[in-house]
Amino acid sequence: MLKINVAFNYKFTGLIIAGLLFVYSAHTNANDAVQMYTQCATCHGNKGQGNELLKAPVLAGQSAEYIARQLNNFSSGIRGSHEKDTLGKQMLAFSQSLDKDKDVPVLSKYIESLPSISQPKDTVGDLKNGSRYYQAKCGACHSGNAQGNPSFKAPKLAGQSVDYLRRQMQNFVTGIRGTHAEDKLGRQMAMMAKTTSGQELEDILHFIAQQK
Ligand code: HEC
Ligand code: HEC
């Protein structure tokens, strides 16, 4: 009887220790993430709301998978290494300060947990045309209301700064983004970016700006 009790107690204590370790590590991960994010907040805002003046995009509402991929793309030069990509280069030092296997997943999960922010956007365009063009050319990958689609690895566009979206479209068209040999997804998007321009693109951006 005593033997059984001892064995049971050992098992039970083991479980408690495992539980405590789990809670402790989850807690430190959260603290690490908040700590790590403070260096990002200077440009991307403390809520991930972005900063139009610094041309830093909104991060809140974006999936952890997309954030992690972009951070790794920046640090390995798949994104931001083009000589004319002065804004992308700003990300180089910050992405390289992160450990790909330890920091990037923790920080990306933290950013994913930040609530989406909806900010007023002063776009002009034809909403009806924009909706039509968007559904025909973008919706299949980025989803019907620009929420993004993990199956196609397509990021959320809704809620993003329109100036940032327009600049990325230009970057894809001019080869500043999406030309690196290992940037398969960027190359795919560069092909799509070349299918639209001018007023049609403005209408598409106007449609995206209306999505939450
Ligand atoms: C000095 C300002 C600055 C700091 C600090 C900074 N960023 Fe950035 N970040 C930018 C700019 C500017 C861009 C847009 C680059 C472009 O236009 O291609 C960007 C782009 C990004 C993107 C790509 C977003 C997208 O939609 O594709 C991610 C992800 C990102 N930053 C995450 C971070 C994280 C995480 C940190 C902290 C470790 C950080 N940034 C620190 C300025 C900054
Ligand atoms: C075949 C699927 C596909 C289609 C169609 C498509 N995209 Fe994309 N798009 C992607 C993928 C995948 C990415 C992410 C690329 C990467 O990881 O760097 C992307 C990225 C983007 C980005 C960069 C977002 C950011 O946060 O930096 C913009 C802007 C964009 N797409 C706009 C559009 C618009 C506008 C259309 C329609 C004209 C469109 N896309 C059509 C797959 C697609």
TrEMBL record:
<feature type="domain" description="Cytochrome c">
    <location>
        <begin position="125"/>
        <end position="212"/>
    </location>
</feature>
<keyword id="KW-0574">Periplasm</keyword>
<feature type="signal peptide">
    <location>
        <begin position="1"/>
        <end position="30"/>
    </location>
</feature>
<feature type="domain" description="Cytochrome c">
    <location>
        <begin position="14"/>
        <end position="115"/>
    </location>
</feature>
<protein>
    <submittedName>
        <fullName>C-type cytochrome</fullName>
    </submittedName>
</protein>
<keyword id="KW-0249">Electron transport</keyword>
<dbReference type="Pfam" id="PF00034">
    <property type="entry name" value="Cytochrom_C"/>
</dbReference>
<dbReference type="InterPro" id="IPR024167">
    <property type="entry name" value="Cytochrome_c4-like"/>
</dbReference>
<keyword id="KW-0732">Signal</keyword>
<keyword id="KW-0479">Metal-binding</keyword>
<dbReference type="InterPro" id="IPR009056">
    <property type="entry name" value="Cyt_c-like_dom"/>
</dbReference>
<dbReference type="InterPro" id="IPR036909">
    <property type="entry name" value="Cyt_c-like_dom_sf"/>
</dbReference>
<keyword id="KW-0349">Heme</keyword>
<keyword id="KW-0813">Transport</keyword>
<keyword id="KW-0408">Iron</keyword>
<dbReference type="InterPro" id="IPR050597">
    <property type="entry name" value="Cytochrome_c_Oxidase_Subunit"/>
</dbReference>
